[in-house]
Design a protein that fits this description.
two-stranded antiparallel ribbon; globular; mainly alpha; two-stranded parallel sheet
């Protein structure tokens, strides 16, 4: 650029965050004494996974994914203070990442974890009452009992505990609706009434989905989603969960407006 044009702009520097240092500080703050060693293992695992696993649109090995794992590791440590710290972190890394991998990448990722945490074998945690409720719901709905599908419901349940927005991705007829409906029915069976508000975001235009303001009168007209949000945000004495299910293609046109709502920082 010519000097006269350069003078009109401010210099901006972008740096890559030091993931290992961020991990170490967060692990210390969560109460891990072996934080330096564990932070190194964790960042190496994510670096290797990024390079060796297949490239998928929904894979994320950045700072946001790391933060979610660290928060879950802290919760596990507080819940099971007797467990070794490396077992706690290994469990958090496995349980938070496995749900998003395609079938072919699962053995590769498990192999990477075994290399970084040699000799550690932590079996999948079973939630006795929840697992039994899932199996009972599948039987009532006359579904074939598949261990993979039961595990997918449990994975969605675990993801919902740490994230307030989750995406279920898969081909047509892959069992996405079964997993979501089974989760809702199992929670209802356990006394936590769960309501699903399902809508197709692609069936209507943006102003019908979010609402629109009349430029002349300045009157606001609620859209379908605004109306659902108002409905589910009303205070209630009942113990219940309310999920908004977008049963449609994910399209930048409508999902961009949800960014701040879905963000982990809860802006």
């Amino acid at each position: 650029l010519p000097e006269s044009v350069k003078a009109q702009f401010r210099p901006v520097v972008c740096i890559v965050p030091d993931l290992q240092q961020i991990c170490q500080i967060m692990l210390f703050s969560e109460g891990f004494l072996m934080a330096p060693v564990l932070a190194k293992k964790m960042t190496i695992l994510y670096k290797l996974a990024k390079g060796q696993l297949s490239k998928q649109y929904h894979y994320d090995f950045g700072l946001r994914a790391l933060k979610a794992v660290l928060v879950m590791a802290g919760e596990l440590k507080r819940g099971s203070p007797d467990l070794d710290e490396d077992v706690v972190l290994m469990r958090a890394l496995r349980d938070m990442n496995l749900p998003k991998f395609v079938f072919e990448d699962v053995p590769l990722f498990l192999g990477l974890i075994q290399d970084l945490f040699p000799g550690l074998d932590c079996p999948r945690v079973r939630y006795p009452s929840f697992n039994d409720a899932v199996e009972a719901v599948l039987q009532e709905n006359k579904c074939v009992m598949l261990d993979h599908q039961i595990d997918k419901v449990v994975q969605l349940y675990e993801t919902m505990l740490t994230r307030h927005t989750s995406m279920v991705v898969g081909g047509t007829g892959g069992g996405k609706s079964v997993v979501i409906n089974t989760l809702a029915q199992a929670q209802t069976k356990l006394g936590l009434h769960t309501k699903l508000f399902t809508l197709n975001a692609k069936a209507i235009n943006i102003s019908e989905l979010y609402g629109v303001m009349d430029p002349v009168t300045r009157d606001w007209t609620d859209g379908l989603l605004s109306k659902i949000f108002r409905e589910i945000c009303k205070p209630t004495d009942k113990q219940e969960k309310r999920y908004v299910v977008f049963d449609s293609d994910v399209d930048a046109l409508w999902v961009e407006n949800m960014n701040s709502v879905m963000d982990d920082n809860k802006v």
